[in-house]
Write a structure and sequence with these properties.
The protein is an alpha+beta fold and 226 residues long. 46% of the residues lie in helices and 20% in strands. The chain has helices at 2-32, 35-108, and strands spanning 124-127, 135-138, 151-154, 157-165, 170-174, 181-186, 192-198, 203-206, 221-222. The strands form two sheets. A five-stranded antiparallel beta sheet has the order 1-2-5-4-3, with no helix packed on it. It has a four-stranded antiparallel beta sheet with strand order 8-7-6-9, with no helix packed on it.
């Protein structure tokens, strides 16, 4: 029994040694000639349909999963946009009602009625490299109706004011620049103040207010300085 096991182990070692020799010989032949390279090329070409067929279930499942995920995301995004559109339309109707009331009150007080402001879309094409300035350049100028003092807004609110213009470009002073200041009002208690920029932290500061002024963390400040 022991001899049979020893003979079996010997045969395994011999086979392993022979396979190593064959591998070394094939590597040497492959490095010295293109015979095996050509053979490998034709073999891979012949086996490609089989490999593609074997990999097709994975590709199909991945494609279907990606398609279903994209469709699901599109459906969710569409539902979200529809809800946002509905809310925005309601806000527009409310805004028009408030504008009508405001105009009526101005007429009663013999105050000039404000004209509808012109809206333009612009892109930021340059940012000031100076660390002590918070200014950007937009791709709209006098040719598009931009003028000095024109407010600049994003979807989140007021961000700055045009300080210089040419025909095609305008320079905008951002609210966070220390030369910028805008009147604000606290929506919670109607307290008024002046918010100024702070270059160091890119924040707005409210200075020169008494300690007794009722400001709290989380208060919303709005401006009508348009």
């Amino acid at each position: 029994m022991i001899k049979k096991l020893e003979l079996k182990d010997l045969l395994i070692h011999i086979r392993f040694f022979v396979l190593v020799l064959i591998s070394v010989a094939l590597i040497a032949v492959d490095m010295s000639s293109k015979t095996l390279s050509n053979a490998r090329y034709y073999l891979e070409t012949a086996l490609y349909p089989i490999l593609a067929l074997a990999d097709s279930p994975h590709k199909v499942s991945k494609m279907v999963s990606s398609h279903l995920q994209s469709s699901s995301e599109l459906i969710k995004e569409n539902e979200k946009l529809s809800a946002e559109n509905f809310m925005q339309r309601a806000d527009i109707l409310r805004l028009k009602s408030l504008e009508s009331e405001n105009e009526a009150m101005r007429r009663m007080l013999n105050s000039p009625v404000r004209k509808t402001s012109k809206r333009l879309f612009a892109e930021v094409v340059d940012v000031a490299a100076d660390l002590y300035q918070r200014r950007v350049v937009i791709n709209r100028g006098t040719g598009s109706g931009v003028y000095v003092g024109m407010p600049v807004m994003t979807d989140t609110g007021l961000v700055g004011q045009v300080i210089s213009v040419n025909y095609a470009f305008s320079r905008v002073l951002l609210l966070t620049d220390n030369l910028s200041a805008v009147p604000v009002i606290n929506t919670r208690n109607q307290v008024r103040a002046i918010a100024a920029g702070d270059n160091g932290n890119d924040e707005l500061l409210i200075n020169n207010v008494p300690r007794s002024t009722d400001f709290k963390v989380g208060d919303t400040l709005v401006t009508s300085g348009l």
